[in-house]
Amino acid sequence: MTWLVTGGAGYIGSHVVRALTGGGESVVVLDDLSTGAESRIPAGVPLERGSVLDRTLLDDVIRRHDVTGVVHIAAKKQVGESVEQPLFYYRENVVGLQTVLEASAAGGVKQFLFSSSAAVYGMPDVDLVTEDTPCLPMSPYGETKLAGEWMVEAVGKAHGMATACMRYFNVAGAATPELGDPGVFNLVPMVFERLEAGKAPLIFGDDYATPDGTCVRDYIHVVDIASAHLAAARKLASDPEARLILNIGKGEGVSVAEMIDVIREISGHTDLKAEVAPRRAGDPARVVAAADRIRTELDWEAEYGVREMVESAWAGWRHRHPQG
Predict the structure, then answer these.
(1) pLDDT tens digits, 112-156
(2) Residues in Cβ contact with 294 at an 8 Å cutoff, skipping those fewer than 6 apart
């Protein structure tokens, strides 16, 4: 069988492509290269350049490459931007997914794996976020991911597709320096950027009801994200009745202060101590994934820890920002 990976030239997508090909799967990538790069795609993997909104292109790609499974990763993913441009996010993430599902159903695709997000949960007031925790997204981005899950499940049932919706938590790290996260939107690269500019990293609030007063999050290595996708793809291929909704996390909480200390140590910027800034609106005190269901359903668990995440992310940062 052949897997079509939308967004396969991006940060997470390129890691998923490498995991699939490394696992012996045949892959074709569809990407508009708005945030991805062709250099991230392994040699021998075809790239079809274009938008997930282009139904004609999707039909042609699925037919020419005899696609039998889809991993849909392509999406816009910045929470703040989604608040400012909700229509843009609904078009790209919801209408884009709808178009991919329409082409998949018409082309006889039998496996569909959807890249979702922990943003579907919003601000859950629980110690561990399970897949049954009520979903109350707080941004248009989170809303588009939850709507996407509903659509994937409904279309899967109606058209006989095995489906999986994978909810990511806080992704960091890289398989190689060349595949590092090029964006500066998440905690790890944001701290790198401030440290390299000689500025103290910021902690937004240190008076939360957590052991050290700073927010607690579940960090997951991008290589683990990719291996979870390979495990899910194999599950869908072996079980045509699969209807999975799964967290991808470690099930372990790390505070912002703890993470910043690790980043300072590994980057060598131990002289710049973190400064406390006012809380940001909407930041929950603790968001940590329950990882039991994915362990049971896929016989999968995360392999890498925080230090390995930060070390590989730092190597990626240095690759993109070499010292003069």
Answers:
(1) 999 999 999 998 888 899 999 999 999 999 999 999 999 999 999
(2) 228, 246, 247, 248, 300, 301
Structural domains in the chain, CATH included, are: 2-171+219-248 (3.40.50.720), 173-218+251-288+304-316 (3.90.25.10)
Cβ atoms 248, 175 nearer than 8 A: no
SS3 68: strand
Separation of alpha carbons 255 and 219, rounded Å: 10
Q: Which two tokens stand for residue 182?
A: 């090029």
- Residue 239: other Cβ atoms inside 10 A: 13
Both structure tokens of 238 = 């072996």
Note if 219 is an active site residue. no
For 243, list phi and psi in degrees, rounded to 5. -135, 85
Residue among 225, 284, 281 nearest 250 (CA)? 225
Q: Which two tokens stand for residue 183?
A: 């964006």
> Residue 171 phi/psi, 5° resolution?
-90, 140
List the catalytic residue out of 89, 121, 141, 219: 141
| DSSP reduced 3-state for 5 | strand
List C-alpha distances in Å: 132 to 128, 135, 246, 247, 293: 11, 8, 10, 10, 10
Give pLDDT tens digits for 46-95: 999 999 999 999 999 999 999 999 999 999 998 889 999 999 999 999 99
| 11 half-sphere exposure, CB direction, 13 A CA radius | 20
Would residue 284 be called left, alpha or beta, if left means φ above 0 and alpha means ψ between -120 and 50 degrees? Answer: beta
